[in-house]
Task: structure prediction
Amino acid sequence: MRSLLVSLALLAALPLGAQEVGYWQLDVHANTGNLAGHYVGTQNGQPYAVDLQRDLNLADAGFKVGLGYGLEYQGHGFALQLSTDAVNFTGSSKINESVTVNGQTFSAGGVVTSTVKTTTSELAVTIREQTSHPAWLGLDFCVRDVGVSLNATGTVAGVSQTASYSGSVPLPLVGVSAGFQLDDGTVVARGYFHTMYFFGASYNVYGADLRYFPVLWGGFRAYATVAQLKVPTGSIWSNLDIALNQNTYGAGAVLRF
Result:
């Protein structure tokens, strides 16, 4: 909550430093996607050995919808975006080898039912250079907080077992972006690439955003992001190997003012 208030304060102060009057955008959107990856090793003294796709069957869990929002200021040479996306995944699978989540082991042959919620919040600042009247290039500085909550329930020989995990980490990113607008802002498009590399760990985010405004004050948004996190053993944590690949797709309504 504190970080959200700080972000909103920055947004409120932004027009004071702008050389040219810009505009705000507020959007609410639904999203879905897919998730794959693994946790293997030890964290806080608890062992982990779970593959999200193979063991929990999240990739075949069906169409799941989450909600998100975005708040932006778009100026001539400066932009700031604050966004949050939450997506829920469910899965159920008969496991062929033992699965361990936060110290709880589910033996092979049992059935594990799981729910995973991912929450991604991002604050991004863009310094833009107008390359032509409708197009621009940007240098981006971001903080992206990636959170995962996992709950698993398994039944082996009639005995029920449960395990849970919840954690998040803020990641600083840098990157580039480019965009354009047509028909005096009726169509607005943006693409970007953000990255981080730290002691062998890497996080890459690719995204595209398209907005259509049939009226000056409102319109529609569609977007897609691909996020790839790799934390090999011995990089950030000495005993834990993490891989997380998430594709997110969304669409919603935008208010412009």
Notes: The longest strand covers residues 159-182.
